[in-house]
Design goal:
Elements: E1 27-34, H1 53-57, H2 65-81, E2 85-90, H3 99-104, H4 106-116, E3 120-122, H5 131-141, E4 146-147, E5 151-152, E6 166-171, E7 174-182, H6 186-189, E8 197-198, H7 201-214, E9 220-225, H8 228-237, E10 243-245, E11 266-269, E12 275-279, E13 287-295, E14 301-306, E15 309-310, H9 319-337, E16 339-343, H10 351-354, H11 360-373, E17 380-384, E18 395-398, H12 399-405, E19 412-418, H13 419-430, E20 441-444, E21 446-450, E22 461-468, E23 471-474, E24 480-486, H14 487-490, H15 497-502, E25 504-507, H16 513-522, E26 536-538
Parallel strand pairs: 1-2, 2-3, 3-4, 7-9, 9-10, 10-12, 17-24, 21-26
Antiparallel strand pairs: 1-13, 5-8, 6-7, 11-12, 13-14, 13-15, 16-18, 17-20, 19-24, 19-25, 21-22, 22-23
Helix pairs in contact: 4-5, 11-16
């Protein structure tokens, strides 16, 4: 999270600072929430990768759908007994991230979400990873409404009429409206297809909120998959939203956890001068968010308090869910258990590192890609940092870990690109580093220096050198270079339109990235020693 992000944001105790009293309110609503589960149905370790049974038994694991079910049941029962009103919400991205998704697609997620009993879910960008058809199949299986108002699906037959933008629920005798929006760049980060279009979130929300208010709904929750920076913009620009429950940026907000990106909730002043609480609960099922919102008679928020609950070993897993999970995991065990090699240290694939600078996982994957096709005259490898989804701890590396790092079933794609277009691609990769966007380029075969002192797309790339037969030499803007990337980026994903538009002699070479990485690791008889070598250098 960049420095200065929380400028002008009040902590929860500052409602009174805007003249909002602490008087007894008429209606209190507790929202339990998760976001960005990314198919981590089994418990995770501290690297956000699948946690082994032995480690789980020793209390080293977090999350898992069985723990989520147990904690939700526990909190619902306690809150109901206390006479509280409760909603259970998901802010999107149940899809993609483990063998459970690779094998079962959205069916496993739907089954467990139905068992937990969600009141609503936002469509996440990764819900489009298998196209509109994949989302449509999921919608047929879930019991709760799945919302996204700024997604235009009128021309997509599989989704038309199936993705509402708003929902009104009766909770404790009061009407609670829910509005939902999705990141507008989903066509670049996923595969929604040519018939699905995305509207500006603020434009949609202003109309949707006005419509709810005209219908007499004065308590409005925005369930978003936009990321915290965009949620803050929305809160500041759209009047009438009372609380935002978000996802997409995998942000940990907490009043107690070290390393949290900000307080829980974050508060932003809206156009009417009122504070809008924003909550998010990291990712991968590690936390269950819980926030209590108190409204006065006019539907104004008078307080917002809570904290994410860490789902560690102190939370006993729901036995029935755990048993069903084991049943679904059996066909996956042989694939996941295969040892492909070993590493002599932790390989850092964390979101925070790989979307902002050179990381050891980025070096490893890009090197593996380049090595696979070097004999085809390829000199440069570019892999999006957002395609790296976990770290790997020291010791044996299993295929399960490789698949957790590279879950998207992407394949190698080779092509030729002029040096000037390589620079344009790198400029795109560096264009949203402040937002932690997944397009950040992890590279091999080149060394680059860059700066964020320049505006995006206006010269952030300071210099690029290519490794040639005679050592390192400056990139020639007019020369044609062999490039390897993945099929997602090759098609223009993550903003790499230059690959789709300017590539010459493109060839979908074929091997899956997970296979390429596993083979590369297996060839290292002494194990892989992770280290960075300065191939990406930022001028400070």
């Amino acid at each position: 999270m960049r420095r200065g992000l929380f400028t002008g944001i009040a902590a929860a105790g500052l409602f009174a600072g805007l003249g909002i009293g602490a008087a007894q309110a008429d209606f209190a609503l507790t929202i339990l929430h998760v976001n960005d589960l990314h198919s981590r149905l089994e418990p995770i370790n501290k690297y956000d990768s699948t946690c082994g049974k032995d480690d789980d038994a020793e209390g080293k694991c977090f999350g898992g759908i069985a723990r989520i079910k147990a904690k939700v049941d526990e909190r619902r029962a306690a809150l109901s007994q206390a006479g509280r009103n409760v909603l259970m919400l998901d802010a999107g991205d149940q899809f993609q991230g483990s063998l459970f998704y690779t094998t079962y697609k959205g069916a496993a997620a739907a089954e467990f979400m139905n068992a937990i009993g969600f009141d609503a879910m936002a469509v996440g960008n990764h819900e489009f990873d298998d196209g509109p058809e994949g989302l449509a199949a999921f919608l047929e299986k879930v019991d709760m409404p799945v919302l996204s108002g700024n997604v235009d699906v009128e021309n997509e037959p599989t989704l038309k009429g199936k993705v509402p933008g708003t929902l009104v629920l009766e909770v404790g005798g009061e009407k609670v409206g829910i509005v939902s929006v999705l990141a507008e760049d989903t066509s670049e980060t996923s595969s929604p297809g040519a018939n699905v279009h995305f509207l500006r979130a603020e434009t949609y929300l202003k109309g949707a909120v006005e419509g709810l208010e005209a219908a007499g709904v004065d308590k409005i929750v925005a369930l978003t998959h936009m990321g915290l920076p965009r949620d803050m913009q929305i809160a500041a620009r759209v009047p009438g939203i009372d609380v935002i429950v978000g996802g997409h940026s995998h942000t940990l907000l907490s009043n107690t956890e070290k390393g949290a990106a900000g307080p829980y909730p974050v508060l932003v002043q809206n156009p009417a001068g009122r504070q809008v609480p924003i909550v998010q609960a990291y990712a991968y099922g590690k936390y269950l968010g819980e926030v209590e919102i108190v409204f006065d008679d006019a539907g104004n928020v008078t307080s917002a308090t809570g904290n994410p609950i860490l789902l560690d070993a102190s939370v006993a897993a729901d036995k029935d869910i755990a048993a069903r999970l084991d049943e679904l995991a059996k066909p996956l065990e042989e694939v996941r258990a295969k040892v492909v090699g070993r590493t002599n240290g932790e390989i850092d694939g964390s979101r925070e590192t790989c979307r902002a600078q050179e990381c050891t996982m980025g070096d490893l994957v890009a090197d593996a890609m380049l090595e696979r096709v070097r004999d085809q005259g390829v000199q440069i490898a570019i892999q999006n940092g957002g395609g790296l989804r976990a770290s790997i701890d020291s010791g044996e590396i299993t295929m399960g870990e490789v698949l957790t790092v590279l879950p998207f079933q992407n394949t190698l794609a080779t092509f030729q690109l002029k040096g000037s277009d390589v620079i344009a691609a790198l400029e795109n990769g560096l264009s949203q580093v402040e937002d932690g966007a997944g397009r950040f380029p992890q590279v091999a075969g080149i060394r680059m220096t860059w700066t964020r002192a320049k505006k995006a797309g206006e010269g952030r790339v300071v210099s690029v050198e290519v490794e040639g037969e005679n050592g390192w030499e400056p990139l020639d803007p007019d020369k044609l270079y062999g490039v390897v990337s993945n099929n997602y980026m090759r098609g223009g994903g993550d903003g790499y339109k230059v690959f789709a538009e300017a590539a010459q002699n493109a060839y979908d070479y074929g091997p899956g990235l997970e296979e390429v990485l596993a083979d590369y690791i297996a060839a290292m008889t002494d194990g892989y020693t992770p280290e960075t070598d300065g191939r990406i250098r930022e001028l400070r």
